[in-house]
Design goal:
single chain, alpha/beta, Rossmann fold, 5-stranded parallel beta sheet, 5 strands
């Protein structure tokens, strides 16, 4: 098994990110923001079922999940990742057109680390990715 040399503490250049959204344009935009944050997209998928399978296989550091996806919603993927000890430590950022307090509360209750409403500013997404990927594990 090939292992990359460990990155220095707090450096985001080796941070691996899974992007899941059913809209091609949003996946591309998130990929751009991930790159601007100094991270690497390890996979970009269009549905929740693929997101869950990919997260289990790739073990990314961060998963950016759209709430409304076919196959499984971002909330369902988030909850499933949190329930599995092998994936429970993956940081999760939910993206959604739903921006009410209830929407955000549901996302956080499912186990998300952060929630960003669509439409979002690229700078805000870059900030969230950096904040989530530089946080040291508990």
């Amino acid at each position: 098994m090939d292992e990359a040399p460990p990155a220095a503490a707090g450096t985001p250049d080796r941070v691996r990110v899974l992007v899941a959204d059913d809209e091609d344009d949003i996946r591309a935009l998130v990929g751009l923001a991930v790159g601007k944050a100094g991270c690497t997209v390890v996979a970009s998928v269009a549905d929740g079922t693929a997101a869950l399978a990919t997260a289990r296989a790739e073990q990314p550091d961060l998963a950016v999940l759209d709430v409304s996806m076919p196959g499984a919603t971002g909330l369902e993927v988030c909850a499933a990742l949190r329930e599995d000890p092998a994936t429970a430590g993956i940081r999760i950022l939910l993206l959604s057109a739903g921006a009410s307090r209830d929407d955000v509360a549901r996302g956080l209750a499912a186990g998300a680390d952060a929630y960003l409403a669509k439409p979002f500013q690229i700078a805000a997404l870059v900030h969230q990715v950096k904040a989530l990927t530089t946080r040291q594990p508990a």
